[in-house]
Amino acid sequence: MKKALFYVSGHGFGHAVRSALLVKELFRVGFRTEIISSADRFIFDVNLKGIEYGYRKAVSDIGVIQKDAISVDIPSTLKAWTELINTEQSWMKHELGVCRSERPDVIISDTVPFPLKLAKDAGIPSVLLATFTWDWILRYYADDDKRFLFLSDSLGEYYRHASMLFTTPLSFGLPDIGEWRRVPLIAKCSGHSKESLRKKLGLDDRPAYLISFGGMGISNIESFGLRGLTDFQFLIFSERATAKSGNLLYVMNGEFDHSDIVKASDGVISKPGYGVSAECILNHTPLIYTEREKFAEYEPMVRELKNYLPMTHITNSDLNSGGLGNILGNDLKFTPTHRTDTGLGASSIADSIELVI
C-alpha cells in the first residue's frame, strides 16, 4: 500500500471527524495513513472501525484557546501560538526524520500549517484540506494585540507551500494557492431512518433536541433549564452509560454515532461550526444556534448556513437563563429553496489523490 502522513488539527471535533472520513476513503484507494494529531485517538477509532491506520499524538497546531465552547481566551491563544512557532525548527527536524524513516508518498494537512513546508523540504507532494486557515482566524484578533499580525503573516507563508488545496462548502478566508479544488461537504449522513433511531433510543412522541457543543463541551448546561421543559426531550452526549433522567437522555460517547443522533433529533442546539452544521445539512435537521465569542468564522458561517438550513438564533444570555422554552417547537421546516449536498467530499479527494500520487 502507499503511505500518507496526515496532520490533523486538534481544535474541536470537526477536523478530526472529517479527516477520519478521508482516511477511510484513502484506505479504499490503497493508502495506509498515519495520523498525527493532538485530537484524542477515540475520535478516530469510532469513525475508522475496520480500517488499518496509525496514530501518533502530537501538537502541531494550536487553533484558538477557548474557556468553553463559545468563549475565546485571546491572550492564551497568542502565547501558545508564539511558543509553537518558536519550536518550528525542532519540529521540522523531527518530522523530517519521520519522513526519511516512513517514506510517505504524500503529506496531508487538515488546517495544520507546518506540514506543508515539511513536504516541500522533504520533496513530497502535499495536500491541504481546509475550510479556513489559522492565519485568517488569528488576523481577526489584531485589534486586541498587534502581535497577531506577525503570527498571521508567518502562518500564511506555510500554507503557500501546499501543492494542492481541497475545500468544501462552508469555507471562508482561504489562501491563494495555485491548485485549488472545491468538493462536496465532508460529513456523515446517517444510514438509518429517523423513526428507527428514535425507537432505538427510547424516545417518545415529544420533540427531541440534541445539545451539541463539540470537543469543548459546555459546563453550565444546568442553566439551560432543560428539566423544566417537559414538553420536550433533550439528548446530551456523556462519558457515562446511556441512560434517561426525566426528559434528558444522556448518550454515551461512542455508543451511538453523532450523525445518528442528529438524524433522530427535531433540531440541534449548538454553535455554528463546520462539523455539526454539515451533519445538520446532510441529515436534514434544523439548527438552533448561539453566537461564538469573537471568532472570524462565525458571521460568514451563519450567513452561508441560511442557504442550507432552517435555523433560529438564541443569545448566550437567553440560553443560559432558561430561554430555550420560548423558541422550541417553533416551525422550522426545510423548503425547496434550501440547498442540498451529496456529502461525498472525502471520496472525491481520495480519488483525486490516487490519480496524482
Question: Can you walk me through this structure?
Answer:
The protein has two domains: 2-185 and 344-356, Glycogen Phosphorylase B (Rossmann fold); 194-326, Rossmann fold, CATH 3.40.50. It is built from 13 helices and 14 strands. The strands form two sheets. Strands 3-2-1-4-5-6-7 form a seven-stranded parallel beta sheet, with helices on both faces. Strands 10-11-9-8-12-13-14 form a seven-stranded mixed beta sheet, with helices on one face. With 357 residues, it is of the alpha/beta class. It has helices spanning 14-28, 41-47, 74-86, 88-102, 114-122, 134-139, 147-159, 194-201, 258-264, 274-282, 298-305, 316-319, 345-356, and strands at residues 2-8, 31-37, 53-57, 106-110, 126-129, 164-167, 180-182, 208-212, 233-238, 243-245, 248-252, 267-270, 287-289, 311-313. Helix 8 crosses helix 9 (258-264). It is globular and about 60 Å long. Helices cover 35% and strands 18% of the residues.
CA distance, first residue to last residue? 12 Å
**Radius of gyration, CA atoms, in whole angstroms:** 20 Å
CATH H level, superfamily name of the largest domain: Glycogen Phosphorylase B
Unreliable residue stretches: none
- The name of the CATH topology of the largest domain is Rossmann fold
Can you give the helix content as a percent range?
25-40%
Q: Report on the biggest sheet.
A: 7 strands, parallel
Tally of separate helices = 13
Output the strand order for the largest sheet.
Answer: 3-2-1-4-5-6-7
Order of helix and strand elements from N to C terminus? EHEHEHHEHEHHEEHEEEEHEHEHEHH
Mean pLDDT across every amino acid position: 94
Beta-strand level of the residues, as a percent range? 15-25%
Question: Class by helix and strand content?
Answer: alpha/beta
Question: How many domains make up the coordinates?
Answer: 2
CATH architecture of the largest domain: 3-Layer(aba) Sandwich
In CATH's first tier, which class of the largest domain applies?
Alpha Beta
Number of strands: 14
Global morphology: globular
